[in-house]
Amino acid sequence: MTGVLHSPPVPAPAPTAHDEHLPPARGRGATRAFAWLLVVTGALGLLASWVITLDKFLLLMDPGFVPSCNISPVISCGSVMRSEQASVFGFPNPMLGLVAYGIVVVIGAGVLSGARYGRWFWLGLQLGTLLGAGFCMWLMSQALYEIGALCLWCCLAWAATIVMFWYTTVHNLRHGVLRAPRALVAAVLEFHWFVPVVWCGGVLMLIATRFQDYWATLL
């Protein structure tokens, strides 16, 4: 009786420390915390954009319309809405926010449902949030030093965009979408709260300094 010789199974190589951090080939997911952050910040930006858009249309229909967030000469959404900076691209800025923030909410909801995206997708989100944060900082400078008034809904959109951009950066560093030295990545992951706290704190400081005479009258 002849037998058939079978080669012993070759054990799979043990994963290395580097391999353990590589995302599956089919795409990169994200933590639920980051997904919820995208949903929440996107929803806040969407809310701000929606309210400003409605008020802008009401203002166009009735020049005497007074938005609900017109609280004082400094906190005056109407002054901001009437400015040239409020329609940089030829249409009201918040209409752009309705699209952009809506996309972020969809991305976050997709991740919560188990979606995984390729590196190009996360790089696209990185670029989009970077442009959004830059645009918000430009609008902030215009509100403070050119228009001389603040819109509270705009401030909400600024804060949401800052947090959204930074934690997108944290996510992309964590998963290797953005290349950086390990020491830098470790520091970012350990002190992920530092940048948004300092950034938003800096914005508040600029607002306090710019309108310090007005704040003094309230004391």
Query: Could you please say which CATH topology applies here?
Result: de novo design (two linked rop proteins)
Summed up, the domain count is 1
Instruction: Give the fraction of residues assigned to helices.
Output: 55-70%
Percent range for β-strand residues: under 5%
Structural class: mainly alpha
Major sheet size, sense and barrel closure: none
How many angstroms does the end-to-end distance come to?
103 Å
Mean pLDDT: 89
Describe this structure in words.
The chain has helices at 17-20, 32-61, 77-81, 93-112, 119-147, 152-174, 182-190, 194-210, 212-218. The chain is mainly alpha-helical and 219 residues long. It has a single domain (27-218), classed as VKOR domain (de novo design (two linked rop proteins), Up-down Bundle), CATH 1.20.1440.
What is this structure, in a nutshell?
With 219 residues, the chain is an all-alpha fold. Helix content is 66%, strand content 0%.
